[in-house]
Amino acid sequence: MIIQKTENSRISTFDPNNFSFGNTFIDHMIICEYEDGKWGDVKLVPYGPLMFTPAMMGVNYGQACFEGMKAYKDKDGQVFLFRPEKNFERINKSAKRLAMPEVTEEMFLDGLKALVDIDRDWIPQGEGMSLYIRPLIFATEEALKARVANKYMFAIVATPAKSYYTEPVSVKISDHYSRAASGGVGSAKAAGNYAASFYPTQLAIEEGYEQIIWTDDSTHEYFEESGTMNVFVRINDTIYTPPTSEKILDGVTRDSFIQLAKKRGIEVKIEPIKVKDVIEAQKNGTLKEVWGVGTAVVTTVFQALGYNGEKLQLPRLSDEDSYAEMLKTDLVNIQSNLTEDPFGWRVQVDHVLETV
Ligand SMILES: *Cc1c(COP(=O)(O)O)cnc(C)c1O
């Protein structure tokens, strides 16, 4: 790894009690270029803009995918990643689906650890605080022929993240738009999947909702995901989530929630969820909770479901009665080293670059 430390650290301008998520960037970033069939050296360099042309294939044809993960700092200042190997496996799954070169474990994990290590002072401490990390791969070749590119960049950038408390939101069950299609790229974290979801989401917002519950593209009869998160439904005391597929992204938070629920002895059913069954459960009072899960906010609880022009209210459970809140707390406690880690999910980031 080539390490070029910044001479102009911006850390003194960073106020961990007052910053905006997503556009405050840490001092450094990782970059690595792919050319002539192979990846070059991984470089840890000062964060900043790079120079590309509008003829870059990544922006013309959307050959681009990304990951989202976090680093956490405990009360003693120790820093941890959460299940980073899952993100490594998934970025390569996405890359493969988009005909892009896969990255090596060393590039991904060593790059990640070096970046988090060198900029560990940027990780805010305290409840719900973290560093949000964005690894990505995109085509950089200057060419306008529609074909697989032969130049790429792998990069990792990161932004401090605040407490994840979010108000319960209203979601519209989609009856027309789809996030993913059979045979499509729904199981990849393809940049274009997000672009395609913005317009339908804008329409839902105009109708008074915050997010969309994506349903299957052929019949709209089954729940798939919610917004950019995986979805869970609780009917009586059983929780349901649809199986991952080529249309449902294999979320790390989803998998962690399933394991945490099972550990608590909660019945978890991984099976297709029919919209009709959820609506019926809402009407007969057995629908207790519906929520989304993902790395960014961990959990977003839903307060109402939009279906057939109606806004159906969900019960407002206390934190003690809510499985969503209980499992979120279990997860956050493991992530931020407040409890034991029976699953071996935490990966400590050692001080390796101190002497550089
Ligand atoms: C990233 C993502 C998720 C959540 O995955 P996590 O690994 O839990 O962050 C869910 N759905 C979609 C469409 C996503 O892009």
Could you please describe the fold and organization of this structure?
The chain has 356 residues and is α+β, with helices and mostly antiparallel strands. It has two domains: 2-162 and 345-349, 2-Layer Sandwich (D-amino Acid Aminotransferase, Chain A, domain 1), CATH 3.30.470.10; 169-316, D-amino Acid Aminotransferase, Chain A, domain 2 (Alpha-Beta Barrel). It is built from seven helices and 19 strands. The chain has helices spanning 57-61, 84-97, 105-118, 191-206, 252-263, 275-284, 323-335, and strands at 2-3, 28-35, 38-39, 43-46, 64-66, 69-73, 79-82, 130-139, 152-161, 169-173, 211-215, 223-226, 229-235, 238-241, 267-270, 287-294, 298-307, 310-313, 346-348. Strands 1, 2, 3, 4, 5, 6, 7, 8, 9 and 19 form a ten-stranded mixed beta sheet that branches. Strands 10-11-12-13-16-17 form a six-stranded mixed β-barrel, surrounded by four helices. Helix 5 packs across helix 7. The longest helix has 16 residues, at 191-206. The protein starts with a strand and ends in an 8-residue tail after the last strand. Bound molecules: pyridoxal-5'-phosphate.
Q: In brief, what are we looking at here?
A:
With 356 residues, this protein is an alpha+beta fold.
Class derived from helix and strand content: alpha+beta
Domain unit count: 2
Mean pLDDT: 96
Q: Which percent bin holds the helix content?
A: 10-25%
Largest sheet: 10 strands, mixed
Radius of gyration: 21 Å
